Structure formats: structure tokens, C-alpha cells
Automatic annotation (TrEMBL):
Domain RUN, first and last residues per copy: 1-111
Name recorded for this polypeptide: RUN and FYVE domain containing 2
Record key words, sorted: Coiled coil
SMART domains with a match to the protein in the record: RUN
Organism: Canis lupus familiaris
């Protein structure tokens, strides 16, 4: 039994079936597919579609078992003495397990599940004892019942087709009104586009005129710029030739300067070599001068010694006087040699000074003067 609500009887069974989604998560797919089916407008049609999908999945017993266990939830939809609230409900769910043997392939789309199913008359299968002997009457009754059932089935199909045709007519009328509205909008858009096209054409003509004028002006400017470019190019060619000639002259001058620099470098090396030789000669003469001075000191020491001996020995005076004369001659010769060495040292010093002065002048003079100074130094 269905439970009575505040306003009227709640005759739909879609409410308890929606609870299965919360209790059994795998049933959410069935509920979503039922809601997405087109043409289902009543809860009864949704319940029929749900039952068919559950039969095809072979899980109707499992879904209803989850629902039977939660009796506190079922109490919102059924009275306490209803079949689903009693123990017989669990028995019925247990019997539904046998439906899993059947491979159900039921059509859900395109079926009229919202309308009431026609009543099946089973009177033709019932027999009374009074009508057993009257076979002809039973045959007639069977034929009449068959015709009645055929007419009812045909009437039901015609009603379904009429309802579908009504729905199609309504949809066509709605689409026709939409198309009329869209046609009016399209006409308005066409008129606007024609006005915009006319405006764009007029603007295009103005732009063409302006561009032609601009092209003429730019053409005159380009011609004048071309003439100025030609004149400037001639001037640039002349400047390029002049710069090229100057570059050639400067390169030749640079080559000459490099050659002179190489000559000066070689002359400088020769001067350095001559300076080294002069320094070596000066050192040697200084060494000889030192040796002569040592010999002179030795001779002086001998003279002093001999003079002392001369005073001590009067007998050998004559011999010693001769020796003294000889020694004096040697001393005179040594002094003369020393004077010559000193003169040569002075000459060498003057030569080194002149060479140093000439080097200073060489560093501050031109190439020709440097060449002359080098020749003077070499001589």
C-alpha cells in the first residue's frame, strides 16, 4: 500500500526507487540514464524505464534488497501494514533472484511508458460448467473477444500516434515561429548590411580619390628625390675617388716610413754594438792603467829602498847612482806611458760624450739628420 500524504495519495513508485541510488552506488548509472531519456514526463514512466534497465542488468533483486533492509526509509512511502513493510517483502525480493537467469533485452527508447497500459482480459481462458457443451457460442465469444482486443490495441496505438503527432505539430509550430522571428531578424540585418555596404562604397570612392592624389604627389616627390640622388651620387663618386687616391698616397708614405724605421732600427743596433765595444776598450785601458800605477808604486818603493841603501853604503855609490839613473829613466818612461794612457782615456771620454750628444740629437732630429749623424759616428 502506498502511504497517504497531507494533500492527496502519493501514487508514484519513483520515490522509493530514487532512494536506491543513495543506498547502492552502482544504481546511479541507471538513475542518470533514466533522467536523460527523452519523452519521459511522468514518474510512472521513469519507474517503468528503471525497472526495465534493472532487469537488463540482472540486479533488480540486489537493488530491492538494499531498499527492503532500510525499513525506516520505506516508512515515508508505505503504511506499516503494507506488503513491502512485512516479511513477505523480503520473500518477494528473494524470488526476484530467479529473474537473473533470463537475458532480458527490453526496448526503452521510443516506447510510450507514461501512458496507462491496456487491461488484459483473461475471461476467454476461464470456463464455466454451463458453457462446456456450447462450443459454437464459445467460438463466437472468442472471436468477439479477439476483435475487441484487436480494436483496443489499435485504438491504443492510434492514441499514441495522435499524441506523438500533436507533440510534433507543437514542435513544428514552435520551430516555425522561431524561423519567422529569425527571418525578420535576418531581413533587418540584410537592410543594415546594405546600408553599410552603400556607406562603405562611398567611403571607398573617397579613399580611392585621396590615394590617387597622394600617389601623384608621391610620384613627383620620388622623381625629385631621384634627381637629387643622382647628383649626390656623382658627388659621392668624386669623394670616393679622392679618398681612394689619398689612401693610396698614405699607404705609400707609410711604406716609406716603415722602411726608414727599419733602417733606423738597424743603425741603432750598430750604434749599440759600437758603444759596447768602446766600453770594453775603456775597461781594458783602465785595467792597464791600474797595473801601471801599481808598477810605479813598486818602482817608487824600490827607489826609496835604494836611496836608503845608497846613504848607508858609500862604497857602492857609483854603482847605485848608475842604477838610480837607470831607474829614473824607467820612471820617466813609465810616466810618459801613463801620460799617454791618460791622454787616450781623455780622448775616449770625449768620444763617448760626443757619441752621447749625437744620440740625443739623433733621437730629436729628422731621418736625414739621423742618417748624417750615424755616418759621422761611424767615421
Amino acid at each position: 500500500m502506498v502511504r497517504k500524504s497531507f494533500l492527496s495519495y502519493n501514487k508514484t513508485i519513483w520515490g522509493p526507487l530514487e532512494l536506491v541510488e543513495k543506498l547502492y552506488p552502482e544504481a546511479e548509472e541507471i538513475g542518470a540514464s533514466v533522467r536523460d531519456l527523452p519523452g519521459l514526463k511522468t514518474p510512472l514512466g521513469r519507474a517503468r524505464a528503471w525497472l526495465r534497465l534493472a532487469l537488463m542488468q540482472k540486479k533488480m533483486a540486489d537493488y530491492l534488497r538494499c531498499l527492503i533492509i532500510q525499513r525506516d526509509l520505506l516508512s515515508e512511502f508505505y503504511e506499516y501494514h503494507a506488503l513491502m513493510m512485512e516479511e513477505e517483502g523480503a520473500v518477494i525480493v528473494g524470488l526476484l533472484v530467479g529473474l537473473n537467469v533470463i537475458d532480458a533485452n527490453l526496448c526503452v527508447k521510443g516506447e510510450d511508458l507514461d501512458s496507462q497500459v491496456g487491461v488484459i482480459d483473461f475471461s476467454m481462458y476461464l470456463k464455466n460448467e454451463e458453457d462446456i457443451g456450447n462450443k459454437e457460442r464459445n467460438v463466437q465469444i472468442a472471436a468477439i473477444l479477439d476483435q475487441k482486443n484487436y480494436v483496443e490495441e489499435l485504438n491504443r496505438q492510434l492514441n499514441s500516434t495522435v499524441s506523438s503527432l500533436h507533440s510534433r505539430v507543437d514542435s513544428l509550430e514552435k520551430s516555425n515561429t522561431k524561423l519567422i522571428e529569425e527571418l525578420a531578424i535576418a531581413k533587418n540585418n540584410i537592410i543594415k548590411l546594405q546600408e553599410e555596404n552603400h556607406q562603405l562604397r562611398s567611403e571607398n570612392k573617397l579613399i580611392l580619390m585621396k590615394t590617387q592624389q597622394h600617389l601623384e604627389v608621391t610620384k613627383v616627390d620620388v622623381e625629385t628625390e631621384l634627381q637629387t640622388y643622382k647628383h649626390s651620387r656623382q658627388g659621392l663618386d668624386e669623394m670616393y675617388n679622392e679618398a681612394r687616391r689619398q689612401l693610396r698616397d698614405e699607404s705609400q708614405l707609410r711604406q716609406e716610413v716603415e722602411n726608414e724605421l727599419a733602417v733606423q732600427v738597424s743603425m741603432k743596433h750598430e750604434i749599440e754594438l759600437a758603444m759596447k765595444l768602446l766600453e770594453k776598450d775603456i775597461h781594458e785601458k783602465q785595467d792597464t792603467l791600474i797595473g801601471l800605477r801599481q808598477q810605479l808604486e813598486e818602482v817608487k818603493a824600490i827607489n826609496i829602498e835604494m836611496y836608503q841603501k845608497l846613504q848607508g853604503s858609500e862604497d857602492g855609490l857609483k854603482e847605485k847612482s848608475e842604477i838610480i839613473a837607470q831607474l829614473e829613466e824607467k820612471t820617466n818612461k813609465i810616466t810618459a806611458a801613463m801620460r799617454q794612457l791618460e791622454q787616450s782615456d781623455n780622448d775616449l771620454l770625449t768620444q763617448t760624450r760626443t757619441i752621447a750628444m749625437s744620440l740625443v740629437k739623433y733621437a730629436s732630429s729628422d731621418t736625414q739628420d739621423q742618417y748624417k749623424l750615424v755616418k759621422d759616428i761611424s767615421f
